[in-house]
Structure formats: C-alpha cells, structure tokens
Amino acid sequence: MTTHATGSFEVKSWDEKPYSEIDGGPKLTHASVTNAFHGDIEGEGALMYLMVYRDDSSTSYFGLERVVGRVGDRSGSFVLQHSGTYEGGAATTTWSVVPGSGTGDLRGLRGEGGYVARGGEKQTPFTLDYDFA
Q1: What DSSP state is assigned to residue 115?
Q2: Taking a C-beta distance cutoff of 8 angstroms, is the pair 78, 97 a contact?
Q3: Residue 46, Cβ density class (10 Å: 0-12 exposed, 13-18 middle, ≥19 buried)
Q4: What is the pLDDT of residues 62-108, one digit of tens each?
Q5: For the chain, which has fewer Cβ within 10 Å, the N-terminal or C-terminal residue?
Q6: Phi, psi (rounded to 5 degrees) for 82
Q7: What is the H or E stretch that residue 61 is in?
C-alpha cells in the first residue's frame, strides 16, 4: 500500500564551487548541501549536487542525498536521487528513493516525489509517495 508523505525541509548549509568554466560554454558547479526535514519525514539530509548553468540563466542539476531519520514510524536512512531545473526563480525537482539504499527499519523503502523551491522561502514543501518492497 502506497503512503503519501508530506512535510517541508530547510537548507541548513550550501557550499557551491565551480569545477569547469570555459569561455563560451556553460559553467559547471558542485554543491554540498545539508537539509533539515520536518513532517512525515523527520531527519537530516546530506546532499551533493552537480549543476550546469546556461546562458539563459536556467540551471539543470542532479544529486544524491542520504537522509537519516524517520519516515512515518520507521527509523533508519535512505538515499534520494534528485533531478531538476531552475528557471524563473523556482527550482523544480523530482526525486526517487534509490533501490536498496534503505537501512534499519527503512530497508526495502521505495518511492517517488519532489518539490518546488522558490527563492526567498525558508521552508520548502515536499511530497514522497512510498511503500516497502
């Protein structure tokens, strides 16, 4: 049975650095991020993003985030795979649980969801539709 989880997260730290910049080409960066989750998911996430900044001020990115805490009444950790774009002041992200990444009571966790983060907002609402294999 699929459960619909909701809540919010806030970025606790963001450390971004370029790793490739070429005249006439897009800038490539990586960012190390720490998130705090509240709601149906409670815990802390350690996230690494890879990003490409285009000339039109839009960005594409993907990342992996290990979340340690609880989902519903189960505790452990799991990894989310992020994929998204930043355009017009909003980052639109889809994410999915990496198969086999759950530990502890979260072993067998699978699911998909996402969020839209808008500039200037402290809390970002998220969703995750999940079940257990």
Answers
A1: E
A2: yes
A3: middle
A4: 999 999 999 999 999 999 999 999 999 999 999 999 999 999 999 99
A5: N
A6: -100, 145
A7: strand 59-71
